[in-house]
Amino acid sequence: AGALAMPVQKEVFFTMGEEGSFVNGTRLNVTPTSIKDSLIACGFSEGYADKDSRRREYENFGRVNDMSRGCMRTGSAATNISYVAAGRFQAAYGIDNKMWDVAGAIAVALGAGCSVYTDRKERSFNVSYVVGAPGVSEELVKIVHSGKLAELQPL
Description:
By secondary structure, the protein is an alpha+beta fold. The protein has 4 helices and 10 strands.
């Protein structure tokens, strides 16, 4: 089970396991697509271990932006992921975001049929992720791997 309430937008995203995912009672279901036809959202890490990590993260953002219809930041990892589940974005990725910021939204995305990849280090509350429509998420995972930002595995 997972949920995300967005009071200003008057939306509640939720899932209850095998029943699927919903926004305000309307069932969510993603459609496969490619990265070139996708609008993608990004959640940057909260801090950088070194300047090289920051440089690689920004270079990755530029690559994703150039290969897609655009890459944007909403400022909320949970919003990014929930909007993928609703088909407003076709994928979202984040590097070293806090688990509690994304856990409910990832559950919603899984219930909507999204492909989900994560990388969580032992004894850490941080998680890197790619969530997306089938097709685009796999392409995005390859980009994140090539930038050496995370070792993502299917969830």
